Amino acid sequence: MPHIAILSASVRTGRNSHRVALFFQKFIEAQQLATTELLDLKKYNFPVFEERLKYQKNPAALVLDFTEKIRAADAVLIVTPEYNGGYPASLKNVVDLLYEDWHRKPIGIVTVSDGSFGGTQVITSLQFSLWKIRAWVVPAMFPVPKVQENYDEEGNPTNKEATEKRAKRFLDEMLWCIEAKLRMQKQL
């Protein structure tokens, strides 16, 4: 069974995107699609890094722990809010920290906003950064509009049936990418 790290990118007080990260963790495990681990950047509370991990002389244990969890994952599902058309500094911080560890890693993008566009403006900037470091961005996206109306604080969707149907289609694409990568690794 594949292993997916779910990266909850917001560190803000009162954040709403974390609701969607909780939903995906519960849904993936309930459907037995993969094992998961929730990597909450708010709990990690990383400082702004001055250098990539590979150049750090004495990286903190928490940084090494986070890095190992990303490396061990078959894919990463990034759940990010949209802040003024971009993604949070907390996410950019860890993307740049682990440069090589993203190479050919399947990455699913879930965008969240409290408005009606579901964070879709953030997709292009995040995709571009991930492409530059040679991550494999899953073609399917999962935008979440009006998150505060559509998910409660525990990650339960208000329209469970429709949300789970959308999530299954999105995750099927991600699981296909994981399987394709595993098959390619066997051939190399």
UniProtKB/TrEMBL annotation:
<feature type="domain" description="NADPH-dependent FMN reductase-like">
    <location>
        <begin position="3"/>
        <end position="146"/>
    </location>
</feature>
<dbReference type="InterPro" id="IPR050712">
    <property type="entry name" value="NAD(P)H-dep_reductase"/>
</dbReference>
<dbReference type="Pfam" id="PF03358">
    <property type="entry name" value="FMN_red"/>
</dbReference>
<dbReference type="InterPro" id="IPR029039">
    <property type="entry name" value="Flavoprotein-like_sf"/>
</dbReference>
<protein>
    <submittedName>
        <fullName>NAD(P)H-dependent oxidoreductase</fullName>
    </submittedName>
</protein>
<dbReference type="InterPro" id="IPR005025">
    <property type="entry name" value="FMN_Rdtase-like_dom"/>
</dbReference>
<dbReference type="GO" id="GO:0016491">
    <property type="term" value="F:oxidoreductase activity"/>
</dbReference>
<dbReference type="GO" id="GO:0005829">
    <property type="term" value="C:cytosol"/>
</dbReference>
<dbReference type="GO" id="GO:0010181">
    <property type="term" value="F:FMN binding"/>
</dbReference>
